[in-house]
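As a warm-up, study this chain.
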Amino acid sequence: MATCKSLLDERFPLARRTAYAILLVSSAAMAQQPTGGQVPAGGGNAAGVRLDPFVLYPAVSVFEGYNDNVTLANSNRVTSTITVLSPALLAELKGASTAYRLSYVGNYGWYSNSSADNYDYHEFRGGADFDFSARSSLKLNAEYLRKSDPRGSTLASTNVVTPNKWDQTGIGGIYSYGAMGAQGRIEVEAGAFEKRYSNNRTITETLDYDLQRFGGTFFWRVGPKTEWLVQGTQIRTDYISPLSIQDNRENRVLTGLKWEATALTTGTAKFGYSEKKYSSTGVAANPKGGIWEIGVRWSPLTYSVVDLTTGKTFNDSQGGLGSTYVTNEYISLIWNHGWTERIRTTASGYYATDNYSGIGRSDKLSQLGLKVSYDMRRWLMFAAEYQYYERQSSVLGADYKKNVFLLSVRATL
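Now compare it with the structure written out below.
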């Protein structure tokens, strides 16, 4: 969440929500290597190639940059130039009442001074939308990810020689009943994910887990473009290793408002209560208390958009060295502004606090970024960006600062 954006975007709403709920949205995300590939947007500026029955949208990005703290170390920093190649492909099949999507995004990174941190990430996703009637619809999604935790990005990846590699698979769906604009409507969702680590097993053995998510949301229209909602969710997380004591069930209840294009803003604001119950008697306390999820988009001009995201969650501690869970609070602000038809800037800021149970550790994480992009052609974009990362920790020697400079080119058809 270095920019609080993810490749689990609007095309995959359940996957995005589930990942939001189960991943450590602070430490790991704040330290990711630069990844540039995004699924090219079908039907947008990119041109497609018809390969019946699908339309294909290919893209490729190349990054060249410099990272002054590859392993997020407090001292003895590893500095290196980095090259990233990111191919992407989206295949779409659209009908009158159905739509199908298959996509791949790859990120291949090479550090000139730290080959142990080289990486190759793969993201495969599929989706299908069915509109049975004006009132009834179903969205199905599936994913397979092969990635790693960069060294220093999590507690379990701090003292390793090579990054912890993992595979994640998931499937889920959302069924909606009620026409858009109706007085009331409901959404029911379900999903299952599993994550498996493949190396550094003396450290990562206890990190493998299976997860199931079940939930429902009731919407009630209170204005022309505003809905009141009530949402209930249960997340079940079962760790595979008998050495783990983190098996738990989390129950969430939230209520709030969802509005569209009201006074130049669109967004959702939800407030509620969450409680995690761990199965093991070895867990001293179960986290519970107030949580929130807020996302607001402000569009004062057609060419200027500000996205505000903030939230509070209880997450399982990843290799917590005595910690079972992390209380995470975060806020993100992203401003996209088009200065001309070709020149655009993106300014981003992120701040989060991670409080680890059982070990008295508290981290403050921050990020600032600025990107300038130039659309030389409809299909060709050049960009330059700077990213700054910092962690201030109550644990001696856990602080770090990192500066990343990147130049990139992105091409589509």
